[in-house]
Every structure is written in structure tokens, then in C-alpha cells.
Amino acid sequence: MWFDIHLETANYNSERDIKDSSNYASDWDAPYSWENYQSCVLSSDDWHNGRIRICSKDEYTPEFLDGLELLIDPSPETITDRNDFAFQIYLLGHDTVAKHKIKFDRIGNSNRFKITWFGKIARTYVGDHDFKHNFSVMVTSAEFPRLPETL
After folding, report:
1. Would you say which domain of life the source belongs to (predicted)?
2. Long-range contacts of 123-131 (CB under 8 A, 24+ apart)
């Protein structure tokens, strides 16, 4: 079984209009730079076929997924082709993400899960290949993906 995960934020200026003429040390710190790129997309399948191997079809149950913690692309320095990363990101251009830690926690005995995801970002779009920016995602209630009857 393989998972494809695709996340997209609201537009960067969705909560407020960004009109700021201040000088900032970098575009990372400048709100107007973020507005220029509109939103962030973090995806295993939008630009390439990353996919995350989870388990065999026989193992695929809510019980198996409960407590499962995945470490994905933990050593990005060993990956030479950006298409070999499990995920790609469009943040302030096409940057790079790695060092993912994704955990699935079942909510009671339901078929719903809390998903906690941490990772690191390198601003490769501007030539910075150091994974020095942290990100986190919290999905509070995701339904367990059911398999089609034909599988």
C-alpha cells in the first residue's frame, strides 16, 4: 500500500492584506515576498511520483496504522535527484523538503486519525541547500482511506 499526500495552504494574504514597505534582512522575513508566491503546496504527487510505502495490502488496517511513525528522506544529503525525494514543496518557489516524521494516531475506536507531521525545508530555489527551516502539520481528524473493492 502506498500513500500520496497533498497539502495546500490558503493564500498567504488570506488573513490580512499585506501592504508593507519595511526593509527586511531577507525575502524569507518579508511578508510581501510571501504574497508574491500566493500559497504553499506540499505534495508527493503534484510534480512527480513520490509516494510513501506504508505496508502490504494484507496488513492495511486501522490497527496497523494506529501509532505508525514514518521517517521519510532522513538523509537528504544522499539524494542527488530532486525527483527521488518523497515530497516536493512550492513555498517561495520550488524548494526542497526532507527529514519527515509523520505519525498516525487513531482517535478512539473510530476510523479517524490524528496525523502529526514534522520536517525540514531547504530554500533550494534561491540556492540554499541547508535544511534549516522547520515545518509542522497537524491534521486533527482524517478518515482512514478505504480500499476499492477491486483491489
Report:
1. Bacteria
2. 123/28, 123/91, 123/92, 123/95, 124/82, 124/94, 124/95, 124/96, 125/91, 125/92, 125/93, 125/94, 125/95, 126/27, 126/92, 126/93, 129/96, 131/76, 131/96, 131/98, 131/99
Task: Report the C-alpha dihedral over residues 76, 52, 136, 66, rounded to 10 degrees.
Answer: -130
Q: What is the pLDDT of residues 33-43, one digit of tens each?
A: 666 667 788 99
Given a contact cutoff of 8 angstroms between Cβ atoms, the answer to whether 100 and 56 are in contact is no
Instruction: Compute the distance between CA of residue 141 and CA of residue 3 in angstroms, rounded to an integer.
Output: 17
pLDDT in tens, 76-113: 999 998 889 999 998 888 999 999 999 999 999 999 99
Identify the three-state secondary structure at position 136.
strand
This prediction's pTM:
0.84
Phi and psi of 2, rounded to 5°?
-125, 145
- Given CA atoms 142, 132, 28, 125 in this order, what sign does their dihedral have? negative
Give the side-chain half-sphere CA count within 13 A for 6: 6
Other beta carbons within 10 Å of 120: 18
Locate all alpha helices (DSSP H) within 47-131, ordered by sequence.
Answer: 62-65
Report which DSSP code applies to 46: S
